[in-house]
């Protein structure tokens, strides 16, 4: 069974992506801070819960390296309520950059080597479009993710690992699961339900 790790999985849009993949027959490992939401996802969809904060860098790295997922969906998005740059506290800036940018880089760095070694994998990084960003800090992080995804895709071209940047869009995010499935299909990962049907295992 193909394995996916979804960060930010207890909140939309990560939850929409995690549940869609689980419904399609993927082995989904959901990383998030909300233990109640994770328990609900496990009970309703058979998702493997990973309750942790992305800012706990060493713990997240150890878990990510041990999982060796085929697909990483980075959907952790957390922004300060304050939108004026001069109104932000240092802690607001640090949190926004840590969750929305640094965590993406560090989790990717932990998982990418095993994907390259296997010659197969997909990274999907969700971020805001410039038009949807409400503040300078949101635009800065989103622009950095876009640039990172483009540069990384060029750097590892030919490795068998694909890199996608996907707009998180606006609530209610119901479309996100289907968009991610479409990207994964383009990267060579078929729906497990379709695979079972093609091989005579479906109903």
Structure description:
The protein contains seven helices and six strands, in the order βαβαβαβαβαβαα. With 203 residues, the protein is of the alpha/beta class. α1 packs across α6. The C terminus is likely disordered.
Gist of the model:
This protein has seven helices and six strands. It has 203 residues and is an alpha/beta fold.
Question: What does the secondary structure layout of this molecule look like, with pairings?
Answer:
Layout: E1 3-7, H1 14-23, E2 27-32, H2 35-45, E3 48-51, H3 57-67, E4 71-74, H4 90-118, E5 121-127, H5 136-155, E6 161-167, H6 176-186, H7 192-198
Parallel strand pairs: 1-2, 1-4, 2-3, 4-5, 5-6
Q: Give me the side-by-side strand order of the main sheet.
A: 3-2-1-4-5-6
Helix-strand pattern: EHEHEHEHEHEHH
Based on helices, strands and strand pairing, what is the structural class?
A: alpha/beta
Gap from first CA to last CA: 18 Å
Strand content: 15-25%
Q: What's the alpha carbon Rg, rounded to whole Å?
A: 17 Å
